[in-house]
Structures are given as structure tokens and as C-alpha cells.
Amino acid sequence: MQNIHEPSAIGRRCESLRREGKTIGLVPTMGAFHEGHLSLMRRARAENDVVIVSIFVNPIQFARGEDFDSYPRDLQDDLAQAERAGVDLVFTPSAEAIYPDGFQTYVDVTEITDGLCGASRPGHFRGVTTIVTKLFNLVRPHRAYFGQKDYQQSAVVRRLVDDLNLDLEIVLLPTIREADGLAMSSRNVRLTPEERQAACVLYASLRLTEERVEAGERNTKLLLDEMRTMIETEPLARIDYVALCDPETLKPLDQIEGPMLAAIAVRFGETRLIDNLLITLP
Ligand code: PAF
Fold first, then answer.
1. Cystine design at 34: which of 12, 184, 202, 251 (Cβ 3.0–4.6 Å)?
2. What catalytic reaction does the record list (predicted)?
3. Is 239 part of any domain?
4. Annotated binding site for ATP: which residue ranges?
């Protein structure tokens, strides 16, 4: 497995792979790998000639006061895991190489970034879409792989790809969960044992909504109240948002008439976790 640090070098390498007629699958990550990342790498391995993983904790998608400094990092372990997953090439640029002095161009997707994490983390998606655009330009992948846990991120990236006529396919893969339902996240390692236990309420509250919809409940206000009440039974949980929205536009739903996305963000101590479930009508 090759490790490339310089943006210009990855650009040249990918250009020559394309000239050789190879298909390229890109898995953009911030490292601290878990099964969720590995599932994206394995799928990319199955669908492409060459698999490239980027590992870059992107400073511009963290607002001041967020967890950029404490975000988990373990490059040596990540490299070993990527190699075992059959990755051909990792791209590990420095922040200075990605955002050199004088950098001043950002990519902004509007509207679909207004709600959910966009409302609680102003500027976050501008940081994501800027780095993702740079990665797409450097690697020019045929396919890029994202996880459903970051559902809004994947919807924003799809919008970006459609709106800017980027020539690649976005592949969205299911959330990988621990045995007790907690969605795998690099941030889970920062939970204390008590917070880790309390965090089970996230998936439980999503499943509650799914079961209530299956049983015929259609009142979104009631469903949201029930989710909030369940989460609030955990003294360590502080709700950031609880939402029932349209899976395409991500706008809040008043009526349930078709598929919907139940999405939540909750803090446990210093750690903010997100999760979601796509719910279809029986
Ligand atoms: O989901 C992530 O890990 C990041 O937001 C991404 C897509 C790699 C951009 O920094």
C-alpha cells in the first residue's frame, strides 16, 4: 500500500491510473477507523480497480470550540487496517498542503444545509463540501463512498455532485452498529463507560419511532415528543436536535405520507453523537 502526502503527487498518480483505464474508488475519511469505515473500503475494493482512502482531519469543518484538537487520531493503526482491507493507496496530506497561505475559495451548498447539523454547526458543511470538492478534483474518482450515519452529509455531497455536474457516483452504505445498537463513530472512544451505556438511548429512540409508525401513528408532534421523552430519561443525555424530515429535502415533516428520516443529535458530556433511521410506511 502506497502512502502519498502531497496533493500534486496524488493528482499525478490518479491521472496516470485513469490513463491506464483503471476505475478508482475513493473513501474520504478523517481516520480513527472502525467497522463503518472498513465496510466502505471493502465495498470500494469490490467495485473498483484501485481503492484510495484519504485520511485528513479537516480543520475547516470544525467551528471554534468544537472538538478538532481532541478528535481521535491514530495514523499507524489506520494504515495497518487500511492495508488489511485491501486499500491500494492512502492520501494523508498536511493542513498546510491542503490550505496553503492565501487559500480563500469555499464551496457552499445552501438550503439542504440549513437544518439538522447545519443549524447546530454553522459552517460545518461548507468545510465538508470544500474538502470533498478538493479531494474529488485531485483523485477524480469514478465512485466515492459515504456512510448513512452522516445522512445529511451524504445528501449534501449528492447535491454538490449534481449541481456542479461532477462526473462520479456517490455510494451510500448502511450504518454499522455495535451489538447494543449504538452507531459506530470515531467519537465513541471519547465516551466514559457511563456515557457509553447512556448512548444506547439514541438507537432505542429511533426504533421507538419506527415501531410507532409501523403501528399506525402519523402525528409527527407526538412522535417527536415521545423520542424526546425517551432520550430525557437518560440524565447524561443533552438533546441537540430531534427531527422527522423528508429524506430528500431534509425539511421537517408535518404529515407522514411516505418515507421519512428520523434524525437526532445528542451530547453526552463533551461528546456529540448523531444517528438516524430511514423509516418507510408499512
Ligand atoms: O465524514 C467524514 O469523515 C468527513 O466529514 C469527510 C467526508 C471525510 C470530510 O472531511
1. 184
2. (R)-pantoate + beta-alanine + ATP = (R)-pantothenate + AMP + diphosphate + H(+)
3. yes
4. 30-37, 147-150, 176, 184-187
Confidence of residue 282 (pLDDT cuts 50, 70, 90): confident
Query: 257: domain CATH number?
Result: 3.30.1300.10
Is there a domain that residue 180 lies in?
no
pLDDT tens for each residue of 11-46: 999 999 999 999 999 999 999 999 999 999 999 999
CA pair distance 7, 5, nearest whole angstrom: 7
Its pTM surpasses 0.70: yes
**H helix runs in 140-258, sequence order:** 151-163, 193-198, 200-214, 220-232
Cα(125) to ligand 1 centroid in Å equals: 10
Find the domain containing 243 and state its range: 186-277
Among residues 173, 199, 227, the one where a domain terminates is 173
**66 and 147 share one domain:** yes
Question: Which residues are part of a known binding site?
Answer: 30-37, 61, 147-150, 153, 176, 184-187
pLDDT at 48 over 90: yes
- Listed residues 130, 149, 173: the one ending a domain: 173
| Residue at 254: amino acid letter | D
